[in-house]
Amino acid sequence: MKTWDVVIIGGGVIGLSLAWRLRRDGASVLIVEKSEPAREATHAAGGMIAHCDPHNPPALASLIAASARMYPEFVRELREASFESPDLRNAGTLAFFEQDESPGCDAARAITDDDLTRLEPFVSLRGRSFFLPESSVDPRKLASALEKTLRQSGVDFVTGSPVNEVAVLGGRTAGVRTAKSFYAGDAVVNCAGAWASMIRPLGVPTRPVKGQMVCVVPPPGPHRPGPLIQHVIRTPEVYIIPRSDGRIVLGATVEEAGFDKRVDPDTVQRLHQAAANVAPAIGEMRIHEVWAGLRPGSPDDLPILGPTALPGYFAATGHYRDGILLAPITAHVMAQLLTVRKPDFDLAAFSPLRFR
Ligand code: GLY
Known about the structure:
Blueprint: E1 3-9, H1 13-24, E2 29-32, H2 41-44, E3 48-49, H3 61-82, E4 93-96, E5 109-111, H4 113-119, E6 129-132, E7 135-136, H5 139-152, E8 156-158, E9 163-169, E10 172-178, E11 182-190, E12 207-217, E13 232-234, E14 239-242, E15 248-251, H6 265-278, H7 280-283, E16 286-297, E17 304-307, E18 313-317, H8 323-338
Helix pairs in contact: 1-5, 1-8, 3-5, 3-8
The structure holds glycine.
């Protein structure tokens, strides 16, 4: 029977990124995915590398800063390996803040109304605004490039197979069990996002936090190439993420609604209107796609990273609103842990054992 060095439960951006780093370190890796890779929170994500967002949890500051720094090289390597582009955009973010808010990074700078007109002629909203040196990626393209790279480099995939439990033999993990099969592994990592809490033995307490999203495209007819706006734009009501092919993604709600992924037409309308209030031309754009995703929340809104109480069983999940942003650093530190190196960061605050 084949045995892998590491079995990863869940083929979202965290599982895929971790598999990539482990494979580079020489480990044999199997990803067991309940449906198809990257069809859940990764597919739904906006893709902002929002390291200057004042709402980022302070406990995550150093991991967030490190991950944002890693992104250019992470994407460069991925493009080289996959010949696919995750649409990394570096134009930056224009953020409108409430009076009592300040940007979450030193490199932010306040901008005037004239700056706004020059930077984004289609944006008519005015207010206390800042330029933030942030980037964005298209998470669907990022995941596609990761999956292609992994398949080329010999990472194995089992899809359409929810893991029910982590198997235990002699007091340590021996692999994973699905309804039909057993997959043997020396180590197992739970990267199952909002579904992580369903896998026995319990103890990775994520929950789904719904986000509804909208994608708009230019109306039919001749239009300028590329997106109408160049920067990511954030206001307290909406965020607006341009893609290089002209699509614009609008987000997002934050809802405690269980595993409900229905989309509500009024909410779609509200998001579209909020974006039109920022840039009236977005109101003229056609709704191309609407969807909802389930972010993996945790009891304290911080990721769950590191060894569990069961030897050989690890967690790397619970990234809540920051899964795309934190994928490179999560893969880096978890690969260090799994190959018995000291992680570059103190992960004590994110230990799965903190919930006991
Ligand atoms: N990271 C954006 C969101 O969670 O809506």
